[in-house]
Each structure stands twice: as C-alpha cells, then as structure tokens.
C-alpha cells in the first residue's frame, strides 16, 4: 500500500504498476468533495516519491467512476469573491496537472458515470478505456457554470473544437460508442473485461508501443487552428449555441468564449482563462438558481424514497378509472414503466380513445428508435381495457380519472370501493376538488388520497400526492411508491382547494384577467412573460390547459378562497368560455389554432377575440414590462407563501420544484421562493404596496413581513 485515505488508495501491483482506486467511504458514489481533493494531493505526493513505478492504473471501487464535484459545496461560492472561487478550482487543477505530468504513463478504466470533475480527471490521464455500460460528460452548463478543472482546455485538444464545444454547451451524457467515435476514449470494453483491457493498454504504453508523450504535448499546446479557421469555427459555434441556449442561460456561450480565448495558449495560461470564466458564472443568480434546483431535486428524491420505504408492499398491478386522453396517458405511463394496469370506462368509445392515446405514444417511441415493435406490443398487452370491475380485487392501487365533477367522482369512488380489497389504495386524479370532501363517500377514507397528474401525463414530471384529513401514511407511502415506479417526481401536499400548483396558478391567472380589464393587450402580456422565462404566456397557457377547464377550476378556487380569488368583474376568460372558445381542444381560444402538416396546432392571432372582449376590457393601455411581471407574479408569490405558512407544502424547495415540474416555471429563476430571494422581499413589499388597490391577493403575508423585518430569506 503506497497510500490510503477514506477517499482513495494507491496500491502497487505486479509489474511495478500502481493502482489509484477511488472509493469514498460511507458514500454510494465517488465525488470530488474537498476531502477527496486533499486526499488526491497527498496521494500524488506519495506516488511521485515512490521509486520504480512504471505506470498508473486509475479505477473506481464503486459501480460508478466519479459523478463530479460535491454540488453541496458550491452553494457557499455564490457569495464569495472571484479570488476565493478561483481557489476552489486551482487546488484540483494542480492535482490534475500533476497527474498528467507523472514520469510514467497513466490509463483510466471508466465504469458507470464519469461526469464533470470525474471526466476531467479522465482527460488528464494519457489513455482512457470505457465500459460499454458507462457514460461520460461535462454537465456543468446545466448548473449555470462551466467545467473548472481543465475540461474546456483538454477536451477541445483531444476531440477537436466543434465536438468539444457541443459536448460542453449541451451538457449531455455521452455513451461509449459516441465517445470512441470522436476519440474521447481509446478503447471500449464489456464491463467484465474493462480492467483487463485497461491494464493491457497501460502495459503497451509502458512497453513503448503506445506513445503517451505526444498526447501530453497536444493537451498542453495551443489549438491547431489558424486565425481564419478559428474565426469561422467560433462564429458558427457561438451563433448555434446562443440560439439553442437562449438569452437567459449564459453558461453555454461563455464556455465557447473561454475555449476561443484560450485557443492560442498553453495549458497553464488556458486554465487561468477557464478559472476566470468559472468565477464570473459562479457569481450569477442563474448559477445559484440552477444549483439550487439540482439540490432541491436531490431533496425531493430523498423524500420520495423515504416514503417508498414506508410502503407495505410494491405496486405490482394498478387500475385507472376513466379512459380518454388522461386515463390513456396514465395507463401508458404505468405499463411503459412495468406496472400492468386495468383501464376501465363505462363505454367502449372511451376505452378505444384511451388505447389510441397509449398506442400513439408508443408508436412515437418506435418511430424514434427508442423501442422495438415487439417491446411496444408487450407494453400494450399489459394495458387491459375493461367495462367491468373484473380483476379490481387483485390490484394494489386504483387511480380515478373521471370528469372533474364532485358528484360524479363521489359516485364512482363509492362504487369502486365495493370492488377492491380492503387494503387497496384508492386515489383521485382531481386537479382542484378537496380530497377530504371526496373521502366522505368512502367507508375506508384512510386508504384514499389524491394523485394529481399533469397533462400530458407522459411529458410532465410532477405528481401531487394529496393527503386528506383522514388519509393514512400507509396510503401516501404506496401512492408515492407508485409515482416513483412511474418515473414521476412526487410532491406530498396537504388538502386544500387546488392543492399546491393550481392554488398558486389561479391567482396568476387572476392577475392576467385584471391586466386585461385595465386595458393590457393579451398578446403583449404573453410576450413579456415569455421573455421573463415562462415557456408560454398566460393567454397561450389557458388555451393549452383548456379555457373551459380553467373557468370551472377558477370557480372552485373562488369558492375556496373568496376573500382573494373571487373576482368582482366579468373576466376575459369567462367571455371566451361563453363563446365556446375553449382553446386548442376546439381550435379557438384567445388565439386560433390551425394544424400544420404534422397535425400540431399552430397559434395565430384572432381578431374575433378582441371584438368579443371589448365589453369587459378597458381602453388599450401600454404597461411597462416591470409592471406586467409584478402584477402577474405577485399573486402567485403571496399565495405560495401562504401555502408554506399553512403547511400545505413542507419546504420552499419542494414548492419551487412543484412549479418547475408542473407548470414549466423558468429553471434559471429557480422557483418562486428563489426568485423572491433574488429580487429581495423589500422589492416584493414595495410592489405589494404599489398594487394594494388590486385586492388581497397582492398583499404580502404575515410570514413575509416577519422575514422582511428580520432580513431572513427562504433559502
């Protein structure tokens, strides 16, 4: 044993080969936390002082190689100065430079994931052998930063500027075949042969058959591009990256800038350019938001796994009540993820529609090469359409997805309960109706909860699991376990009208209605909110959701919270509804929709909309962008704060992720609570005072006032 720590070891193998093995004690994966960085420095000290070593094999003692830096250590960087941030990157840069310059060749055996700093370590090695089951990549731009341990320097010099810029800007994980094709790795091996192939490669380098000196020279030299080639290459790349990333995500373009600035430099100088770029990005609100989203997602996943551990058994078979688009989407998702499902409807037409929806989604996967026709057939065969309750006594969970009508749901739930076993969980896919009130129809309310999917089911990650007054932990646990199995992000919330997402969405829509009442152009509002970061503005979103659905849900919310969600005027959405303009579902809403060649509805401006709204909107008025954003976002922010203060949702992180995964809230803003922290509660309070005449929904809560007084933040 040459060196040993809780993070890694160095052993001396036969043939005077040293093996550097990463195996972080107490963790399921290897990561580059500060302890590992320090251990690597100490290990290199020992290795450089060891006599007779001819080569270095780098391996992992875990199912993955190294997943990257410890992201939890990033959060402290955002308020630090550039010098401290550069210090964060410099310590491991020194390690990787020493690794690259060892007086003997090195070869890394890449198993599992080698991401971020883990892949940058691989790039510092002379040779890379990759398992067919492994993936590599530099995902830092997803976090609003760029690779900080030589990734922007070494990768372009190994695989070329175009490929490297694409890898870094897109932040995508790369499979072994692609990595081999572009020269990022030197060999690919089956998992059981990985170590042997890596050792053979290293021994060839030791014997002089493979030249490692030339590789080191290339990684330490300027890029082989003349000025004309560089100008054309970087202009094209930056244009492409800017178009794909958009103006709200600076990291991808900055990464290409860094590669360009350092193109004529050697390794040490180029690393300084990279460090400067890393420091500039690390201090932006975007990086803080995106890292916050990553950490919140880890928290959400842990909570979901903890709930699943409490489940008395796995969900092996499910059922859905009500076919159609929603029921068919639930059936597809369940079957696709390996849980056979009964799909019940009261008529054959409904079943046919549900099967058509599942078949359409599966056919898309086959067309895109993500599934074989045989696999598609197997999934379809695990969806069992039925007009009766036959087989319901053998399922673990039933999801009710019938029409959003309390009386209908009461009747269906009560009837279903008679046909299931005493311990089957019954869940409702209601989007607004109180779970506690629906449970009144049941004799076993402890086995009942909400399981609110978002449309389209296959595309939207979020599932709200709603606990009614009598819902048991047992019911929540099995429902979360089912959501996990379906590949969804489960957020457990308490019962109230609209639960969490719709409860905060409808004040946002009310803000929109008030803007139109006061003379705003709905197209202008859409454009401002889309520039702010929403994937679609409020008018377009209403059209997609369905204006009929929205008007119905708005009435439920107004009944539940009359002090702030009951409008005292006739709104533009109500006018659309009365004129049977329901949105995309019937081709006309705020906008008109005409299918393109692929059948996808294309949004066009409808002058009829303006004529219909004339009686309920004010004289056309131009509003500043800041005022539109404030009037739209404040109702959502104050209602979100109320939800947190009332215990409807457990943490700001869960609340923020619910809106990201359920509504498409702009990730670069991190969520509503993260946004409030960024702009400051003093700003929120000032805007609240400015718009106090618009109603209670613009009034900040007591909890917000307390935070403002104490200088506290949500994160």
TrEMBL record:
InterPro entries: 3-OHacyl-CoA_DH_CS (IPR006180), 3-OHacyl-CoA_DH_NAD-bd (IPR006176), 3HC_DH_C (IPR006108), 6-PGluconate_DH-like_C_sf (IPR008927), ClpP/crotonase-like_dom_sf (IPR029045), Enoyl-CoA_hydra/iso (IPR001753), FA_oxidation_alpha_subunit (IPR050136), FadB (IPR012799). GO terms for biological process: fatty acid beta-oxidation. PROSITE patterns: 3HCDH. GO terms for molecular function: 3-hydroxybutyryl-CoA epimerase activity; delta(3)-delta(2)-enoyl-CoA isomerase activity; enoyl-CoA hydratase activity; long-chain (3S)-3-hydroxyacyl-CoA dehydrogenase (NAD+) activity; NAD+ binding. Pathway: Lipid metabolism; fatty acid beta-oxidation. Keywords: Fatty acid metabolism, Isomerase, Lipid degradation, Lipid metabolism, Lyase, Multifunctional enzyme, NAD, Oxidoreductase. Its EC number is 4.2.1.17. Residues 498-593, 628-693 form the 3-hydroxyacyl-CoA dehydrogenase C-terminal domain. It comes from the Bacteria. GO terms for cellular component: fatty acid beta-oxidation multienzyme complex. Residues 318-496 form the 3-hydroxyacyl-CoA dehydrogenase NAD binding domain. Pfam families: 3HCDH, 3HCDH_N, ECH_1. It catalyses: a (3S)-3-hydroxyacyl-CoA + NAD(+) = a 3-oxoacyl-CoA + NADH + H(+). PANTHER family: TRIFUNCTIONAL ENZYME SUBUNIT ALPHA, TRIFUNCTIONAL ENZYME SUBUNIT ALPHA, MITOCHONDRIAL. In the N-terminal section; belongs to the enoyl-CoA hydratase/isomerase family. In the central section; belongs to the 3-hydroxyacyl-CoA dehydrogenase family. This is enoyl-CoA hydratase. It comes from Kineobactrum sediminis.
């Amino acid at each position: 044993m040459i060196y040993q720590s809780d993070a890694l070891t160095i052993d001396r193998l036969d043939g005077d080969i040293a093996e550097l093995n990463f195996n972080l004690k107490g963790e399921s994966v290897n990561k580059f936390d500060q302890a590992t960085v320090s251990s690597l420095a100490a290990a290199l000290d020992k290795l450089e002082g060891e006599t007779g070593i001819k080569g270095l094999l780098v391996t992992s003692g875990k199912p993955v190689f190294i997943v990257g830096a410890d992201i939890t250590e990033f959060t402290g960087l955002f308020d630090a100065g550039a010098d401290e941030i550069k210090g964060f990157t410099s310590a491991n840069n020194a390690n990787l430079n020493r690794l690259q310059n060892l007086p003997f060749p090195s070869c890394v055996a890449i198993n599992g994931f080698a991401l971020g700093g883990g892949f940058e370590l691989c790039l510092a090695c002379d040779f890379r052998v990759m398992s067919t089951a492994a993936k590599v990549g530099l995902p830092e731009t997803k976090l609003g930063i760029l690779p900080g341990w030589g990734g922007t320097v070494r990768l372009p010099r190994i695989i070329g500027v175009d490929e490297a810029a694409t890898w870094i800007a897109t932040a995508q994980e790369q499979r072994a075949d692609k990595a081999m094709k572009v020269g990022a790795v030197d060999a690919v091996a089956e998992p059981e042969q990985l170590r042997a192939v890596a050792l053979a490669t290293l021994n060839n380098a030791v014997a002089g058959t493979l030249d490692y000196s030339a590789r080191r020279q290339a990684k330490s030299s300027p890029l082989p591009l003349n000025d004309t080639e560089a100008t054309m290459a970087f202009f094209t790349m930056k244009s492409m990256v800017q178009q794909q990333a958009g103006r709200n995500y600076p990291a991808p373009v900055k990464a290409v800038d860094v590669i360009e600035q350092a193109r004529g430099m050697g390794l040490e100088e180029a690393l300084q350019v990279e460090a400067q770029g890393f420091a500039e990005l690390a201090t932006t609100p975007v990086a803080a938001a995106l890292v916050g989203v990553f950490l919140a997602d880890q928290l959400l996943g842990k909570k979901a796994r903890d709930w699943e551990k409490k489940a008395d058994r796995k969900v092996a078979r499910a059922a859905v009540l009500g076919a159609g688009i929603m029921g068919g989407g639930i059936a597809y998702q369940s079957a696709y993820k390996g849980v056979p499902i009964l799909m019940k409807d009261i008529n054959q037409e409904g079943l046919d529609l549900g099967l058509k929806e599942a078949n359409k989604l599966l056919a898309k996967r086959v067309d895109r090469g993500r599934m074989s026709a045989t696999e598609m057939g197997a999934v379809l065969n695990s969806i069992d359409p039925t007009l009766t309750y036959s087989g319901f006594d053998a399922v673990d969970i039933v999801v009710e997805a019938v029409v959003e009508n309390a009386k209908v749901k009461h009747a269906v739930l009560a009837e279903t309960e008679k046909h299931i076993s005493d311990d089957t969980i019954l869940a409702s896919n209601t989007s607004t109706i109180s779970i506690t009130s629906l449970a009144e129809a049941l004799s076993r309310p402890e086995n009942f909860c909400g399981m609110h999917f978002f449309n389209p089911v296959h595309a939207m990650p979020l599932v709200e699991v709603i606990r009614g007054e009598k819902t048991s932990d047992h019911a929540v646990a099995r429902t979360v376990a089912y959501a996990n199995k379906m590949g969804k992000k489960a957020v457990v919330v308490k019962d109230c009208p609209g639960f969490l997402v719709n409860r905060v969405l409808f004040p946002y829509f009310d803000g929109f209605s008030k803007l139109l009442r006061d003379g705003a152009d709905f197209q202008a509002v859409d454009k401002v909110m889309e520039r702010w970061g929403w994937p679609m503005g409020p008018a377009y979103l209403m059209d997609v959701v369905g204006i009929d659905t929205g008007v119905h849900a708005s009435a439920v919310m107004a009944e539940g919270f009359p002090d702030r969600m009951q409008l005292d005027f006739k709104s533009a959405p109500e006018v659309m509804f009365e004129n049977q303009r329901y949105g995309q579902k019937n081709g006309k809403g705020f906008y008109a929709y005409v299918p393109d060649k692929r059948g996808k509805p294309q949004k066009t401006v409808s002058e009829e909309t303006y004529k219909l709204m004339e009686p309920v909107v004010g004289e056309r008025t131009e509003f500043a962008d800041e005022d539109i954003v404030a009037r739209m976002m404040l109702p959502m922010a104050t209602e979100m704060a109320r939800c947190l203060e009332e215990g409807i949702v457990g943490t700001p992180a869960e609340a923020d992720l619910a809106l990201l995964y359920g509504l498409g809230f702009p990730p670069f803003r991190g969520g509503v609570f993260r946004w409030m922290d960024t702009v400051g509660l003093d700003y929120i309070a000032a805007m609240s005072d400015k718009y106090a005449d618009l109603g209670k929904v613009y009034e900040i809560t007591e909890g917000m006032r307390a935070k403002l007084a104490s200088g506290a933040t949500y994160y």
